[in-house]
Amino acid sequence: MLTIMKNNWARLMVEKSYLIASTLLTICSVVAAIALMNHVQIKGNIALITNSAEGKEEVSRFTENKYFNVTPLKEAPPKSDLLFHRYDVVVSYKNGAYSIDTIKGDDYKTLLLSALKNPESFVPDLSKERKIGTNIIGYMMMFLLMQGVLYARLFGEDKEKHRIERIVMSPIAFLEYLIGHGLFIILLIIIPSFAVIAAAKLAGVSIGFTLLQYVLLIVLLAFLSTTFALFLNSLFCETDTPNMIGSSVIVLTSILAGSFYSFAKSSSLFNKILYILPQKDFILFADALEKKKLTGNTGLELIYILALSIVFLMAACIKTHRDYVYHK
Fold first, then answer.
1. Are 156 and 233 spatial neighbours (Cβ–Cβ below 8 Å)?
2. Is residue 51 helix, strand or coil?
3. Measured distance CA(106)–CA(32) in Å, rounded
């Protein structure tokens, strides 16, 4: 097992760009979360669509409230502006009535409607908003999950270049070989990311969670990332295929699950689909942990993430064992 890990490290040092790129992405995600925290939690970015004089009066009312950034527009912006958080909500104002379009769910829509009716005295309930720790780990989540796919390419190369056939014929046990790859990936995800968090803590930056809690959360993400990456690489013989599929799936599901902000629609079916995503359960668990509101449901969220990770690992073991051990 140590032999596999040492060999992987030597191979990675030949292509240091992968390690440097993933570390820089982790640093950028933490810096972005800290820098944007106040903007995301307090400021509401509103696109107000109106051409009437009455609508212009509404704009002046909003600008007097410190909780809103209002941008008057003549026509509705593209949906992508909502998805990428340029605006939290698009409001159409006509004949004294509001029409609200947002991707942040019915609760957020109700909150905004209340604010729109009386912006001068509106004060948001920040107890329902994410705190700094959940924001940081949420921003990190997508990048940490993608690192597993990146580093698992070493396992994929063993398959693509037929090294694995020679390895399973050697004294190294198949399970040791797979665990060696898994531990190597997990350590590469944990060590740089925790070092960034620890450096921020030493610099006096408020990071929300304790360092011990960050260890728990990062280990949980690293385990999910690694098992998912091994599972994908067990399905394909080419290195590039699981890399492309895994990265695309992680980016899409992480955004939908709320990696950067809460994403919800009124459709109950759509919401149920979102809760299938392990990233959604991870964010909910992290939020409850930071707010000290752990319940039985948050325990189930943690169990679900671990169970899904174990399923990925077992599937990778069984598939690879059948392909390269039964038929060696």
1. yes
2. coil
3. 27
On the 0-12 / 13-18 / 19+ scale of CB atoms within 10 A, 296 is exposed
Coil, strand or helix: which one is 73?
Answer: strand
Stated pTM of the model: 0.74
**Residues counted in the chain:** 328
**What is the DSSP secondary-structure string of 125-179?**
-GGGS--HHHHHHHHHHHHHHHHHHHHTHHHHHHHHTTHHHHHHTSSS-HHHHHH
Nearest alpha carbon to residue 110 among 185, 283, 102, 148: 102
Phi/psi for 297 (5° steps) reads: -65, -40
pLDDT digit string (tens) for 263-284? 555 455 666 667 788 988 898 8
Q: How far apart are the first and last CA of the chain?
A: 20
pLDDT digits (tens, 9 = 90+) for 85-101: 677 778 776 666 667 77
3-state class (DSSP) for residue 243: helix
DSSP track, 300-322: HHHHHHHHHHHHHHHHHHHHHHH
Residue with tokens 């995301």: 40
Residues 70, 55: Cα–Cα separation, whole Å: 12
For residue 18, give every residue at least 6 positions away whose Cβ sits within 8 Å of its Cβ, in sequence order, or none: 12, 150, 151
Alpha helices by DSSP H, listed for the chain, are: 2-14, 16-41, 53-63, 79-83, 106-117, 132-151, 153-160, 163-168, 174-202, 211-235, 240-257, 268-274, 278-290, 296-324
**Residue 119: which of 93, 85, 83, 81 has the closest Cα?**
93
**Whole-angstrom distance, CA of residue 323 vs CA of residue 326:** 7
Tokens of 313: 């690992």
Q: Decide: helix, strand or coil at residue 11.
A: helix
